[in-house]
Please model this.
Amino acid sequence: MKELQYLNKYFVKYKYHFLSGIVITIVSQIFSSFAPRLVSDSFAVVQKHFEAGNVDKIWVESRLWRNIMLILVTTLISGFLLFITRQTLIVMSRHIEFDLKNEVFRQYERLSQSFYKRNRTGDLMNRISEDVGKTRMYVGPAVMYSIQTLIRFIVVIAFMAGKSVELTIYTLLPLPLLSYAIFKLSTQINKRSTTFQQYLSKVSSFTQEVFSGVRVIKAYSLEKQQQDRMVELSLESKAKSMSLAKVQSLFGPLMIALIGASNLVVIYFGGMMYINNDPDIPNIGVIAEFILYVNMLTWPVASLGWVSSMVQEAEASQKRINEFLKIEPDIKNHNPEYSEISGSIEFKNVTFTYDDTGITALKKMSFKVDKGETLAILGKTGSGKSTVLSLVSRLYDVSSGEVLVDGTPIEKLNLNDLRDNVGTVPQDAFLFSDSIKNNIRFGKEDATEEEVIASAKLAAVHDNIAAFNLQYETILGERGITLSGGQKQRVSIARAAIRDPKVLLLDDCLSAVDTETEETILGNLLDFCKDKTTIIVSHRVSSAKNADRILILDGGTIIQQGTHNQLLNEEGYYRELYLKQLSEKELT
Ligand code: ADP
Ligand code: MG
Model:
């Protein structure tokens, strides 16, 4: 129960739902316990009539009618109150589920990149749907049934003991057995259901990956192979599900057997007491009353087993949720105050190692970009170019050395202000399955139509968009059209540009764009970036030509630097690349 204590704050938050639920349950249980009494009374009246022989028939009949009406009324009232109970307690659990889901989602957004590399999407999805769902079973049904059971026990046992303490004891004898058996069974069900859940999770992770990678699978014609793997996983999960069903199917028969046993106990001992003229059992109506009580107690006792397994599951789920709510993001905002960013960037002896791979991507790197300057970074794949950009927007913190923005160590700046002022166009131009307009506006939510169009023009993608039937309302991704690599990159540039950031980071974002369009965009950017600090990563010399300075990276260190003209006069990567790309251009 330790883990579930986390949820107590929600019971406090919804205390009115909770308390009124409890009060209404008490009243409802009292009303539902009248029926056995009335049945007992009816038996007694009929029995008396037979034994005496000459009791007023009309009176007996009217008494029976009275009892029937009372049973009807009390049952209706108790049923209605039960409905209200659900309205309070179950509705409370839905509110809590909503709050908890939001809490988990907020935490997801808080966590850093490295967290997402350690965890699979399938697992993250499960946490927010499955696990929160399980905890809801605890705050809703489990709590409701526990309250109902407790109150029903108190009420019914009080009613029973009022009639006969001895018979009450006999009646209750089989119940511990019942609840033990059901607890055992529930634990088994629980165990097997957990394994089954794990398999379900595997299956859904697998399918999810197949769906997202469907193009690759088709291109390599791996359908058969994936199908086989799917069949294998499904068979395993089917086996787990069957083993779960086996224990689950024992549940019903076991209940019926044990209720039957209790009934036999009541009939036997009650009958013996009646025959022996026990004053507690003046008529056989009391025996009927006890049988009804037993049946009223059985479901709650059975539900105890069920509830305990729900609680166990919720505990396991809440444990996972808690573990993960406790994770602190690697990248924290150390400064709640507003930070003004103007945009000069300096790397001082920066070394950076990726924790998970142990790869040291940058080694003692130092360079400086002044406000309004443009720096181009060139180098082979894996030389550390993207890593430099990640450090500027603080997606990671350096392992040693310092990144300074406007002369202040980057960790000392307000993280949100920093990121607000940095526009990044990542290497993989990720777009959401939403309209083009909203994708561009993602960079600035309150952007006007004109601003959207202006930044699309800047990124030289306006003409492409205008050619679509729905223009800026065209839906992208899963539910809509797929843009070409170059179009995606340009929409992604428009998204960064619309923020009008102080610092613009372009990570090889023109790689899929033809050279002519590249020229246009670079020309547009030249003007746009006049007062911005720009770092442009590229593998093309043409992108670097306009830069104030060019860095050549290899293996995480700067091997050459200078202006375009300086580097052209130096032997090395830049000159080779220039000559190579020059001849390529002439060939085409
Ligand atoms: P570039 O952008 O120049 O191609 P990167 O900066 O992406 O190079 O990568 C530099 C090195 O760091 C590479 O060896 C790469 O394998 C490694 N690396 C890049 N990103 C990650 C990451 N997220 N986690 C672990 N290692 C990474
Ligand atoms: Mg890269």
